[in-house]
Structure formats: structure tokens, C-alpha cells
Write a structure and sequence with these properties.
Length: about 60
């Protein structure tokens, strides 16, 4: 998926491989950014503690 994102939207990247986006997990949606990690050759989505906690509450 990261390869497709980079090929199609890479021109929108800002400094350090930052790409603004809207993330959605379950019913929670927020404005954020993904970051391209050149060592892993993939995008990373940092999650706030409150989002991680919501995910744990549903398991």
C-alpha cells in the first residue's frame, strides 16, 4: 500500500516525507499525517495515546 501511496500522492509530501491525511479507525476520524520511513520503506501513522486506548477498549 505504501508503494501505491508514494507513486500516486508522493508529490504532496512535505519535508521529511510527511503526507497530510485523514485517518479513520472504527468510528474515530481525525486529521493527521503519515511519515515515510526510508529504512523500512513504508509509511508510519503515529497514534495518540487516546486512540490506542480506544482500540484496547474494544478488544
Amino acid at each position: 500500500m505504501s508503494k501505491e501511496i508514494r507513486e500516486n500522492l508522493g508529490f504532496l509530501e512535505e519535508g521529511w516525507g510527511r503526507l497530510k491525511m485523514t485517518a479513520k479507525i472504527g468510528n474515530t476520524q481525525w486529521e493527521t499525517a503519515i511519515w515515510f520511513d526510508t529504512k523500512l520503506d513504508t509509511y508510519l501513522l503515529p497514534l495518540k495515546a487516546e486512540i490506542r486506548k480506544k482500540g484496547k477498549d474494544h478488544n
